[in-house]
Amino acid sequence: MKKITLLAFAVALTVASCKKEEASSRIQDENVKTTEAANGQTVNTPAADPNVANTPSTDAAVSQNGTAIATFDKTVHDFGNLKKGTKGETEFTVKNTGDVDLVIIDAKASCGCTVPEYPKTPIKPGQSEKIKVVFSANSPGTQSKTVTLTTNTQAKQELLTIKANVSE
After folding, report:
1. Tell me: the pLDDT tens digits for 22-76?
2. Which alpha helices (DSSP H) does the chain contain, by range?
3. Is the CA virtual torsion 33, 36, 39, 40 positive or negative?
4. CB-side exposure of 132: number of CA atoms within 13 Å?
5. Which helix (H) or strand (E) holds 32?
6. Which residue ranges have biased composition labelled Basic and acidic residues (predicted)?
7. What is the pLDDT at residue 27?
8. Using 50, 70 and 90 to split pLDDT, how confident is the model at 20?
9. Which of 89, 101, 104, 138 is deepest in the core (most CB within 10 A)?
């Protein structure tokens, strides 16, 4: 009796999973919009999803014809001598010298004592924005910290460096 019950359960589970597969295929097909490209070919593109917010994407340079190029006023800033327990603050200016929007996806510091603030919106070609970096001088000695920017440039990452000589 247990074998028959188990077999019936397995068959019911298989049938239910097949129906789910058909439903997900149908939903997937509904979410693909067919469009005609300029050359006359038919192209399938994802339909807009109203539940997904518009966020910057690493595909920005790919979806547009061209390249984003990040040009900086400087890539290294030396604070010189700082007293332990103080903070140093600087700004790097980034200009988009490419021909598509420049998107800074993320900015990560090499240490928790360094905090970058970067523009969250795309930088249009020819436009400039500021990247603020605050350094907390917590440890004495010569310090060198980096901020790695993840971007939609061809290099995919840009590196900014700050330096300081921290004294007691």
Report:
1. 443 443 444 444 334 444 444 444 444 433 333 333 333 334 568 899 999 999 9
2. 2-30, 60-63
3. positive
4. 7
5. strand 32-36
6. 24-33
7. 39
8. very low
9. 104
pLDDT score for 66: 86
SS3 content of the chain, % helix, strand, coil (to 5): 20, 45, 35
Q: Which two tokens stand for residue 121?
A: 């919106």
Token digits for 38? 């300029």
Tokens representing residue 37 in the block: 């490209």
DSSP string, 85-118: T-EEEEEEEEEE-SSS-B-EEEEEESSTTEEEE-
Could you give the CA distance from residue 104 to residue 156 in angstroms, rounded to a whole number? Answer: 10
More confident residue, 143 or 11: 143
Cα-trace Rg, the chain: 26
Every domain of the chain and the residues it spans: 2-52, 70-167
Alpha carbon distance 7, 127 (integer Å): 67
Quote the tokens at residue 162: 């700050």
70-167: CATH number: 2.60.40.10
75-105 as b/e: b if 16+ CB within 10 A: eebebeebeeeeebeeebebbbebebbbbbb
